[in-house]
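Input for the complex:
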Amino acid sequence: MTVDPGGEGLVHQLRHQVPLMVWLVLVWNLLWGTWSWANLISGVVVALAVTVLLPLPPVVGGARVHPWGLLVFLGYFLADLVRSAALVAWQTIRPGGIHHSAIIRVQMRTDSDLLLTIVAESLTLVPGSLVIDMDREHRTLSLHILHVRDLADVESRRAAVLAEEERVVRAFGSPDEIAALAHPPGEAPVGTGRRTP
Amino acid sequence: MSEVDTVRDLIAVVLLLAGAFLCLTAGLGLVRFHDVLTRMHAGTKPQVLGILLIMIGGAIRLEGWSATWMLLLVAVFQMLTAPVSAHMISRVAYRRRHVRRDLLLVDELRTGEAADRLYRGDEPADAPPEEPARALLESRRDEGTLPPA
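Predicted:
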């Protein structure tokens, strides 16, 4: 990371800290449960203290939000959540239990820390799949799948992971990253559009 | 007015019961599943939807917005942190070979390096190395109780 001279660095810092500050003030107010000027001002003081005393590295690049993509992502996420929760609940209580699990590696196409984090979090939140490992250099996610019937089932789960990645990128990605989805996995040139600190 | 209240109570009760049922399946899964990785599924996943349902039910039933905001925060932090703890424990479990490999249909994470073949002494009894006979020989040679091949 290059060090910007003087005031520019401060502006740069502030631009990255403001979303965090807004979030902290919001949490503070939600914890108090009521909206008032006193809560707002004390929230700002606490948020300033937290961001100054416990600084975090900024999320490089930040997020763009595409409203339609976000809606599609949230819709699929909620549907997945309910469907898989019911399925896992049934697999837990049925007499047969579960038979085979699988650990698969999936080659991702996006190369941004933030997007990969969102993909991994949403995959782990949905019942039935669990991210065990992530190879950042090679852009692969390793997932544990709770129940698979056969190899065709494994391939369909792999396709589901790539579909989830596509929805996340279409909701939060930059135009470059959306274009990179067109490349088949593993063939997108490594290093283009890379956003990592 | 009272009919509206009844319907509201009914929805809240259904949501709370559904959430409680999902938490029950989490407990059942911990008992019934066979290794750390599958138990992590049971322990963390039904919780996500279960907690959400209970929070929505509670928000409908409880009076006042201040409780609702608090429940919203609980749900948000639950969804942010549950995947992280599940991931960390599973990752450690896999690296320490607390995995029933015989029940895995495919394992694309397996490296097959030397450390993966030796007995290290802290494996559970039902998670042997991939080739037990060879692993025992190599471990003995490592200890020096057998001459090197």
